[in-house]
Amino acid sequence: MDEWSLARDALAETDPEEKCQLVDRLADRIGSGQWVPSDPGPPGLLACGRPGQPRLVSPRELPKRGLGSQDGRVALVHAIAHIEFNAINLGLDAALRFDGMPDEFYRDWLRVAHDEARHFRMLRERLNELGSDYGDLPAHNGLWDMAEKTAHDVLIRMALVPRVLEARGLDVTPGMIEKLRQVGDDRTVALLEVILEEEEAHVAIGTRWFHHCCQLRGAEPDSTFDSLLKQYFADQLRGPFNLPARRRAGFSEPELERLQARGA
Questions:
Q1: Residues in a beta bridge with 23
Q2: How far is CA 169 from CA 28, 166, 175, 183, in A?
Q3: Is residue 47 part of a domain?
Q4: What is the average per-residue pLDDT within 41-64?
Q5: Which of 27-31, 141-145, 257-261 has the highest mean pLDDT?
């Protein structure tokens, strides 16, 4: 089997652990030098696999639970595990869907998929320690919904998935970490600290390729990003924003000023 067929199989796989193992195989081939990913060609029909559980519901239907209880911590870890599972698919989909990009684009997004698989496994192990498992609770599908809305244009995908939806993790995770530390859940804190650091790098990858696409099209990045926010998110973004992390991930000062004004 050639590697791009393996990547397609990984994207289509419905079993979470099997998906992670397929991503591991891809990463091993890249890391060993057996495969240098390059343009996969036109994507054709891409199938994205997910398990039958968790049941997908509207975000409004998800119960609100405090982190002072184990049930609340299980709900939090499950929600983040679901995001990381979707992020595996997002990395694979970006690499497979958008042909005509530089070779480093494909290496970047396959590497992101491997990071996300590791994050998912970490969180699933934590769920098991807490007496639960991935799929035991309902979840929402906002991250993948936006992937489908941006499937037609790599510039829009790079702008809105890593730089909006995944960047929200940079904003909210420090507060989660502080609350978990207050209730003594140091094990989950340690996992989220690792994920926060690595997700910052993933947002930076999105910034890099968003700027690349803007340059190719002669578009000004700051105003293009603001226009896409107005088109796709209207008044949905709310602060506070993690400005230091967003700066490190490549956000410009005008972008951050507009975000703060929009989210006030």
A1: none
A2: 28, 6, 10, 21
A3: no
A4: 88
A5: 27-31
* Tokens coding 167: 């960047």
Cα–Cα distance measured from residue 62 to residue 35, given in angstroms and rounded to the nearest whole number: 42
Distance CA 138, CA 129 (A): 19
Domain CATH for 30: 1.20.1260
Residue 16 φ/ψ region, left for φ over 0, alpha for ψ in the -120 to 50 degree band, beta for the rest: alpha
Residue 238 lies in a domain: yes
Give the whole-angstrom CA distance, residue 209 versus residue 220: 14
**What does the alpha-carbon distance between residue 17 and residue 263 come to, in Å, rounded to a whole number?**
38
Long-range contacts (CB closer than 8 Å, 24 or more residues apart) made by 141-148: 141/56, 141/86, 142/59, 143/83, 143/86, 143/87, 143/90, 144/48, 144/86, 144/89, 144/90, 146/232, 147/86, 147/89, 147/90, 147/93
- Other CB atoms within 10 Å distance of the CB of residue 234: 9
Could you give the number of structural domains in the chain?
Answer: 1
Contacts of 242 (CB under 8 A, 6+ apart): 170, 171, 174
Closest CA to 214 of 170, 259, 263, 163: 163
In a domain, 167, yes or no: yes
Rg (CA), the chain: 18
Residue 45 lies in a domain: no
- pTM value > 0.85: yes
More confident residue, 228 or 263: 228
Per-residue pLDDT at 1: 56
Average pLDDT in the 104-125 region?
A: 98
| Residue 62, domain extent | 3-36+55-263
